[in-house]
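Ligand: adenosine monophosphate. Inputs:
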Amino acid sequence: MLLHTIDDVRKIRKEWKNLKVGLVPTMGALHAGHLSLIKKAKEICDKVIVSVFVNPIQFGPSEDFDKYPRTLDKDYELCNENGVDIVFAPSPKEMYGDGQRLSNDTLTYVCPPFFYVNKLCGKTRTGHFDGVCTVVLKLFNIAQPDYAFFGQKDAQQAVIIRKMVKDLNVPVEIIQCPIVREESGLALSSRNKYLSEEGKKDALVLSKILKNIKACFEKGIDDITALKETAYSYLTDKHDLEYLEILDKDTLHEQEKADKNSIALIACRVENVRLIDNIYLGE
Ligand code: AMP
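Predicted complex:
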């Protein structure tokens, strides 16, 4: 069932009083990564809601909000094929009225702690995680899920959402699902659509760097600078590296040495498309 209004979702949610409900928040242009979250939700829950919403308030003014791929018909079809009960695809107006830019003049919003946003993607995407937390909390309030499903692909996002849920006592359990990759190693992303065939090949460098860091860690190297330096031989003038970090995977704290709880995270532009990826060193 395809629903566009908050009231319609609430009506159906009320009828599911005694059922376990799962929410999979997405921005659409669904791919196998999203489908893995839906599959996990189907395993755990009686009813599954997928939201498809390109959230204006998490995009900066010079980011790709306008050109972000919007493929609702195909997304709805995929959701139907995969047993989703509700696809919730609201308009920006339905979600925010007229306040479609992040502004504390017009909107009450959720502002995650500086420690978590002042690094990795948050460093260059000012206000991004405020926008993410605000929309996710709104979606939680609308769908009132027992479980919500997020991908490790957006590792910083998942840590921040868990922190928000804990700090604000939101009654939902967060389930994190592993990264789905192409056979080549490229992490699936809706933004891969922006890449040319050549760019897709250049983009493989992200997963190669991460895999190599993990291999070096497994050989016994735990010096973080040394691990990060292994990346340089992969980078060419086609790669505009934004960050490469090794941090604690649960807290995003810096570590003295890499250990089994470490995560290596990378953001790099290829053909001016901003790509992110990460790997757990201990799994
Ligand atoms: P998005 O539509 O990009 O906002 O992503 C919606 C959800 O799907 C987020 O929780 C992402 O982390 C997750 N996701 C995106 N790509 C992947 C992937 N390749 N593997 C697993 N989960 C993913």
